[in-house]
Amino acid sequence: MSESIVEIKNLRKEFGELVAIDDLSFNVGKGEIVGLLGANGAGKTTALSILLGLITPTSGTIRIFGRELEHNRVEVLRRMNFSSAYTSLPSNLRVEENLMVFARLYSISNARQKISELLELLEISHLRKRVSGRLSSGESARVNLCKSLLNDPELLLLDEPTASLDPDIADKVRKWLRQVQRERGIGMIYTSHNMRDVEEICDRVLFMQNGRIFAEGTPQSIVAQFHEKSLESLFIRVARSGDVEVIGEEAK
Amino acid sequence: MNGRVILGLVLRYIYIIRRSVPRIIEMLFWPMLDLLVWGFLTIYLQKINQDIPAAVTFLLGAMIFWDVLFRSQQGMTVSFLEDVWTKNIINVFVAPVRIREFLAATALVGLIKVTIIIVALTTVAFLLYGFNLTVIGWGLVPLFANLIVMGWGIGMVTTALIMRFGQAVEMLAWAIPFLFQPLSAVFYPVSVLPSWLQPLALCLPSTHVFEGMRDVLAHGGFPMHHLLWAMSLNVVFLLAEAWFFMWMYQSTREKGYLAKLGTQ
Questions:
Q1: What are the C-alpha distances in Å from A16 to residues A19, A58, B255, B256?
Q2: How large is the C-alpha radius of gyration of chain B?
């Protein structure tokens, strides 16, 4: 694997008696797209939030770009970015205004040119003067992506970026992500409930259940390992059984 | 502190206000309404009792001074709430923004709002009621400054509470400042309060500011004694409030509430 930009070791997060993340360890290489898969409550959003510095872990170490996250939060965040289907940009601002604000927050020089380039890349130059609240969900998703690429991140965290998008736009978003990953060598951590997304875009998948990784590999190798037809059928089996030990034994 | 980041956040709040007619109206509507009510009340008081001509200046002055404190707090907390309401707060917190830069930006927004409101209120108060706030002289600046700082402190507390307990407690943004109003002796002297309550009232920076304002309006001069008290208490309060904010912020991160804020 190429040089690791994310190194997580023995990560644990407890919320009272609930163990949301249990001894989680994984790395993400430069330019690698890693998918975090799992049913609701598996711990993927908590893991993503910890990586973003929104949640403090109970124990374990997180190093991003070789730096310990908790004590170098701002320096690390400057080199990464985030996009989620569950956040939005202020609805009464124009697209351009929203992007200008974030360009300042990320201390981007030559912000106007950068914004123009990204709007062009994502084929939304025509939305520049539009009010964000009047965009369709597909357009909003693209504007969110535009915001997440403003600082030329080396690591991009994507929380269900294609949720609520129609198949056509979802397909385009996946292609854009692949394109920017190829052209810029961005490492990505990608959570999704859309197995097609994961199969198509992820180099490696971490399948989570009860805060732990129970399967890891390429989408194809995981499907083969568990003798399933697709990631989706494995997902359903895990979600319904809940007992990954049994499923793991059966796979042997 | 990165000035560019602070200006970026301020710019975002200015965009929001500039693009929203209801927000512009809201910013000026309540202060103006207060001014009209208190202005007419003082005129009435003057008519029924010719011996209290200073009532106009006391009441209108108190109303404007109170608005400085209240709007300074509001500027800070509502700026934070704007990000929560628009589901943008997570985007801000995962950007390379230090918490002190975020607080500085919201404080600056509070200051901008206060400045706009004060200019509007003093102009209208002068035109309608002949009330000239500048008779207080240079003492006006530190008196206002102390109220603004106290408003920032209360703003930090209300923001921290909303961050920790979520949008369910957002009405605290409007309620908490008014907890300080009776004790701050805004519209009456401290001596009106029960004797057991007076020492407690004098622990608030705002009480000294309002006492100072009344002193200057009644006798002129510079309210040095009250200002020194207000400044000293503000330092103590601000340190305690900043500690409370950081404590709440850390607790919010530990319990995972920050990640949920504004996404549900």
A1: 8, 11, 9, 11
A2: 19
Question: CA-CA distance, B100 to B80, in Å (whole number)?
Answer: 13
Amino acid at B222: F
Q: Does A89 contact B262 at a Cβ distance shorter than 8 Å?
A: no
Residue B113, domain extent: 3-260
Whole-model pTM?
0.87
% of chain B with per-residue pLDDT over 90: 53
What's the pLDDT score for residue B264?
A: 59
Q: Which long-range contacts (CB under 8 A, 24 or more apart) does A111-115 make?
A: A111/A150, A114/A150, A115/A146, A115/A150
Exposed, middle or buried by CB within 10 Å (0-12, 13-18, 19+), for A193?
A: middle
The model's pLDDT over B169-197, given as tens digits with 9 standing for 90+, comes to 888 888 999 999 999 999 889 999 999 99
> How many structural domains comprise chain B?
1
Distance CA B237, CA B150 (A): 8
* CATH code, A1-79+154-165+184-252: 3.40.50.300
Chain B residues in contact with A153 (beta carbon < 8 A): none
pLDDT tens digits, B220-256 = 777 889 999 999 999 999 999 999 999 999 999 999 8
**What is the H or E stretch that residue B16 is in?**
helix B3-18
Q: Tell whether A147 lies on the interface with B, counting CB pairs under 8 A.
A: yes
Alpha carbon distance A11, A5 (integer Å) = 16
